[in-house]
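Lab manual, section 2.4: Encoding a predicted structure.

Procedure: take the sequence of the chain (163 residues), apply the prediction step described in section 2.3, and record the output as structure tokens. A sample record is shown.
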Amino acid sequence: MTDTISTSALAGLVDRAAITDTLHRYTAGLDLNDAELLASSLTEDAVVDLGPAMRRIGYDFPALTPRETVVETLIGAVGPLDTSHAVSNIRYDIDGDTATVFAYALANHFKPGVGSDATVTRHALMMNRYTAAMVRDGKRWRIRRLDIANAWFEGDPLMLLGQ
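Recorded output:
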């Protein structure tokens, strides 16, 4: 007896991989200071709301929109830092060409050029919860709205302001 995967099951797996790639393009764009890569993860009318995460550590931060503003702001603030974002625990609710995606993102931030220096202890480590509304845009999935809430924080919040 040969087990086969149905076409719809296979399509679901392909969508999950493409959605995961979208989250990875978003975070890699930040880590690599790559505006084009970051932009590739977002719709033109994208909204990224870091407000819940930032308010938890004492900052008032408005939602960013559209894509050009999101990319300009995030690349300007996070791009120069030595950062690493690790995305995990991804859960998907896919309905045709739209999806709601939940994930964790562990993000560590160091001043530019010192992230590899073992003697440097000043950093900002965040465990954030991502809730993303995504849409299929041709063969790629893109983030239409990303809400970022903070689960916990360790370190110096001023690192996130480049201070």
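Check your result against the sample. The chain has four helices and five strands.
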